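Changelog excerpt

This revision adds worked examples to the README so contributors can see how folded entries look when concatenated. The first example is reproduced verbatim below.
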Amino acid sequence: MSVALVLVSHSAELARGLAELCQQMAPDVAISPVGGDSDGGLGTSYDAIDAAVRTQLDAGYEVLVMTDLGSATMTVEVVLDDYSEGVRLADAPFVEGSVAAAVAAQQGSDLAGVESAAVSSIEAFRPPAAAAVAEDAYQRTVVVRDADGLHARPAAVIAEMAAAAEDGVQLNGVDAESALLIMTLGLLAGDEVTVSGADREVVDRIAEAIAAGID
């Protein structure tokens, strides 16, 4: 079963903007932004949150809910008391967690996997640590062609491609299945990047996409 996201913020503009960002990285994922109180001001609305969750469940999705602040979380917890299954609230950073969750949902992860991706997004706040590359790993070094570098959308495309590898793929030593970790590398147009892994076909596909330009 596919996973949809409900993004709950005190600000309608923030919720819509984050949904737009996530949608660029995960175009096939159903995402519902819910922001503001019932009068259109800052705050949260029980009815609006409940309607968004119910709409996605009725459409056949499982649902992961993301929140921005504590009071939004409390409102969502009250809403979810009425649901026994198929919906979860993620304890994760709002922006980074939503992006990571959207990419995981785009890759076909189940609800537990999408939630795990959101929770693990806290790693984006730490400097990326290069993992050891196996001596026998296949490697390709190419130059980033995209004018804006490996920003959100190219990173999401690479992450989706990397998910097809059985034994994992690394980009300059970080897990290429994580769009957030790719973005923390800060790779700009003209920078060299090394793609490595045991799956030669996937490594070649990613390297050639970067060299040709993704966005």
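The second example, added in the same revision:
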Amino acid sequence: MTISQTQKTHSKEALIKTLHFFGVIASIILIISISLETFRHDPFMAHSIYFDIQFWICIYFTVDFFIFFFLSENKKKFIAKYSIVIFLSIPYLSIFDYTSIQFTQEQIYLIRFIPLFRGGAALIMLMTMIVKRNSTALFLSYILLLFAIVYFISLMFFIFERGSNADVKNYGDAIWWAAMTVTTLGSNIIPVTTAGKVVTTILAATGMTVFPIFTVYFTTVISRLSQSDNNSNTPKKV
């Protein structure tokens, strides 16, 4: 590989890391926006700042997708592998508002989380590029995504159950419910709405799926360290 090709490769990798980084930042901004709306009890469609944040973040994700498309060496393979990403980047709420399609406040609230899946993909890709060991990168990504899922679903549960469930008096009750549910210990807060029951099932299933991954990872790390110690203690033949 020539010097110019090496420089070109490094520049491409730096650009990809930068795009993933800004994708994560965009997701954080979106999370803050959703959180403020939730805690302030602000109707999303009535406040243009929330609407504008959602729209421009989706536009960034769309532009980001096409940049990656043009950077890819195999365009057909890229489309086959990442076509779902473009559907996660569409500003659905702006389209629905423009076409006057009506949704309930709960449905609008759920639709707002769609771009965050795109941000989650950017996080995993960024961690894989930064951390040398792929297993460690995936493990860290799983931890961050688990905390993110618990937080998002606790927000949803709070929105769905607030006013209908006497046990959900504030967000603290919702985060307690989420922590007990994801660890499959069970919570004393029982959902009463249909949407609340659905997210309870999703969160419990997430906990049962993700926690075994942690067990496998730690078992692998301990096994690797033990094998390394055994190799270092083995006397070398003269």
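Reviewer comment on example two: The longest helix spans residues 194-233. The CA atoms of residues 146 and 210 lie 8 Å apart.
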